[in-house]
Amino acid sequence: MKPLTANLPSGLVEVHRAIIACDRCPRLRHYCRRVATEKKRAHRLDAYWGLPVPGFGDPNARLLLVGLAPAAHGANRTGRVFTGDGSGDFLMSALHRTGFANIATSQRTDDGLHLTDAYILSAVRCAPPDNKPLPEEIARCLDHLDVELRHLPRVRVVVALGKIGFDAWLQLLKRRGVTQSPRPQFGHGEVVRFGDGLPTLVGCFHPSRQNTNTGKLTAPMMESVFRKAKKLLERG
């Protein structure tokens, strides 16, 4: 598989290459390689990506989505964030209905999906066992979020998909010397403004099977978050 570098500025291409080559977290790298070798029965004929997964989308995006981590048999298989599983389809359906995606599914890197004014990445770039990265793994991966964001100069609104993405964004701001008291608390649809020209943060439940199958997150709930994000962008 080749990295998805078409139509990306050269600086962002270099960032993606550095992410793909990262080996800072031995536990995660071992797990991703094992999953890519053993595979899931439904995907036994597929060639798995098995490497850290960089962001995907419009490099001129004003909307940034920060997820948790690649799914073991989703992005860890396909090499594109939120691609190849039910979570990706659920998310892309909401983005399609709100005008950020040209199609409502996200199955393969050659499926024709394009994002407009939106860019998606994960707080952790390798699939973690049980979808639970360790605090130190999240902290190490913060460097990738920091550098990739520097090549997305137009971001004005950040939608955090789950508490880990929300907290990772706050950690990044703290690293840059920005704190807010009291500390913002994650909640679906919660809006946090920081001022000083910084992007507005919006919380959203993660489109995991656990959340969507139980009704904790419904399609209208997710769509409402992106409609809210769109209104925030319109206000400037």
CATH architecture: 3-Layer(aba) Sandwich
What is the tally of beta strands?
Answer: 6
Structural class: alpha/beta
CATH superfamily, called what? Uracil-DNA glycosylase-like domain
Integer tally of domains: 1
Order of helices and strands: HHEEHHEHEHEEHH
Query: Alpha-carbon distance between the termini?
Result: 39 Å
Gross geometry:
globular
**DSSP helix fraction:** 25-40%
CATH class: Alpha Beta
Q: Give me the number of helical elements.
A: 8
The overall pLDDT, averaged over residues, is: 96
Beta-strand share of residues: 5-15%
- Unreliably modeled segments: none
The order of strands across the largest sheet is 1-3-2-4-6-5
CATH topology: Uracil-DNA Glycosylase, subunit E
Largest sheet: 6 strands, mixed
Taking all Cα atoms into account, the compactness measure Rg is 16 Å
Explain what this protein looks like in three dimensions.
This protein has helices spanning 10-20, 26-38, 75-78, 86-97, 135-150, 163-175, 209-214, 219-235, and strands at residues 56-57, 63-67, 118-122, 157-161, 191-192, 200-204. With 236 residues, it is α/β, with parallel strands linked by helices. The protein has one domain (10-235): 3-Layer(aba) Sandwich (Uracil-DNA Glycosylase, subunit E). It has a six-stranded mixed beta sheet with strand order 1-3-2-4-6-5. The longest helix is centred in the C-terminal third of the chain and has 17 residues, at 219-235. The chain is globular, with a radius of gyration of 16 Å. The mean pLDDT is 96.
Compact summary:
With 236 residues, the protein is of the alpha/beta class.
